[in-house]
Amino acid sequence: MRRRRRPPPIPQQPKPPGGEKVKVGALHVGAINDAGYNQAHHDGLIAMTEALPNVELIEAENVPESADAERVMENMIQQGAKVIFPQSFGYLDPALNVAEKHPDVVFMHPAGFKLAPNLGTYWGNNFEAMYLAGIAAGKATTSNKLGFVTAFPIPNILASVNAFQLGARSVNPDVTTTLVLNNAWVDPAKEASAVNALADAGIDVVTGIVDSPVTLVKTAEERGIKSVGFHSDALQQFAPTGWLTGVAYTWGPLYTRLVQSALDKSWKSEHLRGGIESDFLTLAPYGPAVDADTQKLIEDAKAKIISGDLNIFAGPILDNTGVEKIAAGQAGGIELLDTTDWLVEGVIGQTQ
Fold first, then answer.
1. DSSP letter at 239?
2. Where in the chain is the domain with CATH 3.40.50.2300?
């Protein structure tokens, strides 16, 4: 009786470097090619996947800050996502809802102010970089009038507005900053209207914190005034003449550490913050309007911030109604990203 030959074993597929594929989800409130907020996060995620080749990235663009965000996160979890980055301020409560249902999934939210056992937050101390950009603006202005366009008066935004004004005032004591709130993270029509109104009022340097500052810097360039960017240094291409510098986020190294910590179970829920000394917050390259002397002023101030010799919010500091907010001998620190509800002396507030 002939023995049946056993079939040859099925060849095993080689495992990807670092083990089995791990899925990471990310929600974006806008387009990932916006040269702003969403692109900076997307570029960071791509850098993370290059550093961790066992990670498979699932991204969703243009997700509303509503129950739709919960549905997108649930779908990502059904696909196997073990780490999720809900990357917009308005995703915080939806993420907390989903996190409660899925305690085995890690959530990391940008600039949030609430925690859960499996949800942490992260952000760069943008007010340090904005202070340095303010120096460039304060030296560049000839009218002593600066403009700042943003969506909502949330703490980390107001801290950045205040730091921008303080940085400008450190080199130009006569400078003021007009703040325009337009109630939208993405609204090119409102953004263009705001810059045009500021230019009509004699303001000759504008900056802002909106998701895609392309309209801000392009409109400023068209009006012949200078601009300071935010989120991504990709903005510089839109203002070849008036560009000064910008706040630029390089999220890749941080995302790599966060995902790796989730995989090796060392991750913990916390408010993670880093400043100009970190590897995820920097200044964008200088434009032609920033001379060598101004660059040295900025670099010296940066070194002093890192060493602790310069505290941006050292008292006495008054708000724009004359009330003392920080007394002499005291100083505000990184907590201002989560607590600021006032505008510093010299800032003029408007609502569009």
1. -
2. 22-124+251-274, 126-248+280-351
